[in-house]
Specification:
The protein is of the alpha/beta class. It has helices at about 10-20, 35-40, 45-55, 70-80, 95, 100-120, 175-195, 220-230, 250-265, 285-295, 320-325, 335-355; strands at about 5, 25-30, 60-65, 85, 125-135, 145-150, 155, 200-205, 205-210, 235-240, 245-250, 270-275, 280, 300-305. It has a seven-stranded parallel sheet, with helices on both faces. The chain has a three-stranded mixed sheet with strand order 9-11-13. The chain has a two-stranded antiparallel sheet with strand order 6-7. The protein is globular, with a radius of gyration of 19 Å. It starts with a strand and ends with a helix.
Length: about 350
């Protein structure tokens, strides 16, 4: 039986990957210590998701481990010697990072190095998949000429119709402290591939989403937006007239691509992982979609100042992914994603009220 190690296993991507591979017969080991509750408070708590995995997956083992614990990481990988590692643990908020720069860098950069070196020492043939971020490009995408439409911004240059390619520059721009720590991790993952010949890849995610996201204001765009609508909470738009665009990919399609890479691995690869143009929407467009589902108007206010380093329009160019792995494509369209997240929040809130 093949063995998979997943860090951040109680989070959105980690839990999806754990479930996906467990159902395909893998022995899955999850690493998580609920740091999301430390980052975002009680609303970010992921213990509910940990319990769900332990109760529903017969081939899942939870390990309460902080990836900053170098010795603990070394010992775990020496013991498990996994066939593949999916590294989804992170401090994920570019706003929060400025408040806790030491914790942010230690989790995102040093934690990644701990895992890479442990893998090189004890499981050098393992496939190493790193969940990176589109924030490695900093705010350089904002330098592209844009056109303002009624409800969204879009690229003025037809060359970028499909979105941002992996060749886009990552330096000489404002990243946020979070983006900089993720750049360090991203480059280190590539370097362990190139220097040591390890089978590594960086997945530079756009908006990764799904019903198992513990969405909060500082992280989890669609999940938090839909949660606000369901609960009647006020949503705050920060700048760009609410026309800023994100492309959204369901965590299930992320897990499917990870499987493709593990089955046919490459060395030191980089992919922009998102929903592409077909799954893109602005905040204003997202308001309309959730209002149509719930029948409730969004309650919101507007702050005429964008978040530091925020993207005005970001769409992931999926050309390279589809060229390398033509068997993969988006299966969860944007209306399906909205429906799943909406139903997920309705059910979760009912369960909380009944408890």
């Amino acid at each position: 039986m093949r063995r998979l190690l997943v860090t951040g296993s109680s989070g959105l991507i980690g839990s999806e990957v754990a479930t996906y591979f467990s159902h395909r017969g893998w022995d899955v080991h999850g690493v998580d210590n609920n740091m999301r509750a430390f980052f975002f408070g009680p609303e970010g708590d992921t213990r509910w998701n940990q319990r769900r995995l332990e109760e529903t997956l017969p081939r899942f083992t939870h390990h309460e481990l902080d990836i900053r614990d170098r010795q603990g990481v070394l010992e775990l990988i020496e013991t498990l010697r996994p066939d593949a590692i999916v590294h989804a643990a992170a401090q994920p908020s570019h706003d929060k990072a400025a408040q806790i720069p030491f914790e942010d860098f230690d989790v995102n950069a040093v934690g990644t190095l701990n895992l890479l070196e442990a893998t090189r020492r004890y499981a050098p043939e393992a496939v190493f998949v790193h969940m990176s971020t589109n924030k490695v490009y900093g705010d350089a995408p904002n330098e592209l000429p844009l056109v303002e439409l009624e409800k969204r911004w879009d690229y003025a240059d037809p060359a970028y119709y499909n979105g941002i390619p992996e060749t886009f520059r990552i330096d000489q721009s404002k990243h946020s402290i979070f983006g900089a720590s993720k750049v360090a991790a991203d480059i280190m993952v590539q370097e362990y591939g190139r220097y040591f010949g390890m089978k590594t890849c960086c997945l530079r995610g756009g908006c990764l989403t799904g019903p198992n996201h513990s969405g909060v204001e500082l992280h989890g765009f669609l999940s938090y937006l839909i949660k606000c609508n369901v609960t009647g909470r006020k949503y705050t738009i920060y700048g760009y007239k609410g026309k800023q665009v994100r492309d959204n990919i369901h965590s299930y399609d992320v897990a499917r691509f990870i499987e493709c890479f593990i089955e046919e691995p490459r060395v030191a690869e980089v992919y922009n992982l998102g929903g592409g143009r077909g799954n893109s929407c602005s905040i204003l467009e997202a308001f309309e979609m959730v209002e149509a589902l719930s029948g409730r108007k969004m309650i919101y206010d507007y702050v005429d100042k964008p978040r530091e380093g925020d993207h005005i329009c970001y769409i992931s160019d999926l050309t390279k992914m589809k060229t390398h792995y033509p068997q993969w494509d988006i299966t969860k369209k944007l209306p399906d994603i909205f429906e799943e997240i909406y139903r997920g929040w309705v059910e979760r809130i009912k369960a909380q009220q009944a408890a």
